[in-house]
Write a structure and sequence with these properties.
Number of helices: 1
Number of domains: 1
Structural class: alpha+beta
Number of strands: 7
Distance between the termini: 19 Å
Largest sheet: 5 strands, mixed
Shape: globular
Helix content: 10-25%
Strand order of the largest sheet: 1-2-3-4-5
């Protein structure tokens, strides 16, 4: 079963980690723009077309349609690949004078 764990929410967007059987299988960023909903879906490199369509259908049914059932269009850009990490400037030591981003842990 596909599950969604919300990472963030603003008045016009949301970001979710996509889980299946306890493992991360992707991430989706959803942006509400008037009558249209735009999304960027990032999933694993081995995801085939059937898998991608299943993820999009689940995103539409469980996230998008519950937020805006009268939307005109749902446009999804899909990326296939592997996670490289989570980077944050808050992980930089206070002694560091450089403006660098450090790799944080992945769950």
């Amino acid at each position: 079963m596909i599950e969604f764990e919300r990472e963030s929410r603003t008045p016009h967007s949301e970001a979710y980690t996509i889980l299946e059987e306890g493992g991360i299988v992707g991430r989706v960023d959803i942006h509400y723009q008037g009558a249209n909903v735009l999304a960027t879906l990032c999933t694993t490199a081995d995801a085939n077309e059937e898998r991608i369509h299943a993820l999009i259908d689940s995103i539409d049914e469980r996230l998008v349609m519950t937020a805006d059932p009268y939307r005109e269009d749902f446009i999804v850009t899909v990326w296939r690949g592997s996670p490289a990490g989570v980077y944050s400037d808050s992980d930089v030591d206070d002694d560091d004078d450089e403006d660098t981003f450090r790799l944080g842990g992945l769950n």
